[in-house]
Amino acid sequence: MSLLRNLFSFSISTNSILTKPYFAISTKAMEATSELNLHYPKPISPPPPPISKDIELRRAMEASSKSSLFNLTRDHVLYEDEYLMAVNKPKGVYCEAVLRSAPQIVLDSSSEFHLANRLDRDTSGVMIITKSHKVAAKLVKAFTEHKIRKSYIALCIGSSPNWRKITVSSGHGRSKHGAWRVYAALDVGRVLPGGSFVRDMETTFEVVSVNGVETESCEVENVIVVEREQELSCAGDDVVVVRAFPRSGRTHQIRLHCQYLGISIRGDVKYHGMYEWRGRTFEGHELHAECLSLDHPVTDDPIVIRAPLPCWATRDESCNG
């Protein structure tokens, strides 16, 4: 009986020794993590609305089905030479599907096809496919060094802007929930919860039309260096078509900056764009890569590649995206 008592006492004592340091370390680790969380930069833009999750999932499934059946044709080709090909990517088709079907219209079996630039699933417009790894590397470098001028056109819903031309400079990164968000420009370089960093992004916007009325071009440019959440008036219902010139190439850059300016792109539910509007439903955001201006990666000749505008960008409101 005495022996059992001693063993029982030893067991309790041993458990105390093993348990106390464990909880002490866990508490310290939690305190350190909590302290670190307090020093993460806070996103400026709001998170995606709850409704966007189901809508985006359905859109992704529909795009996967559409992409599996997609075949590139000569009608999609905007420009082609022995080194590269520019095509007009349709809305709702993944870039990989376009690349995969490139050999169907190019007879040269020695070509090694690569994407020089990428577009979001629901963004249509100019996409470049190179025919060799060497040319792809040159073009990717040119995109990275901002030597290629890009222009997009977007249809937005919001209050008529009090500017005609504006440049937005901000930070860009993933929040702790994994969504892309706008961050303050001063936060560029700071670490985020997942271990990535806030990176810079800059976009210039020009108003093309408001409620179907074209606006005059303006040389005066407003500049916003994002420091805090934008103070916006009540949400408007104006149709604002803008042309965007992204200097950097961050994921969802134009969509995020439109949201920040209070003119989210129509159909862009992830960034608070109108899904149901004036009795109609809009599947996918209305953003189009209309033009790329570049020096040819082999010949150095200047090239301007334009994609035809979708009907929503030509004031044809009879179309549904």
Short description:
The protein has 321 residues and is α+β, with helices and mostly antiparallel strands.
Describe the structure.
The chain is α+β, with helices and mostly antiparallel strands and 321 residues long. The chain has one domain: 2-Layer Sandwich (Pseudouridine synthase), CATH 3.30.2350. The protein is 25% helix and 27% strand. The chain has helices at residues 2-37, 51-69, 95-100, 133-144, 253-260, and strands at 77-80, 84-89, 114-115, 124-130, 149-158, 165-174, 180-183, 199-210, 213-214, 222-225, 238-246, 276-277, 280-281, 287-295, 302-306. Strands 1, 2, 3, 4, 5, 6, 7, 8, 9, 10, 11, 14 and 15 form a 13-stranded mixed beta sheet that branches. It has a two-stranded antiparallel ribbon with strand order 12-13. A hairpin with a 3-residue loop joins strand 1 (77-80) and strand 2 (84-89). The longest helix is centred in the N-terminal third of the chain and has 36 residues, at 2-37. The termini are far apart.
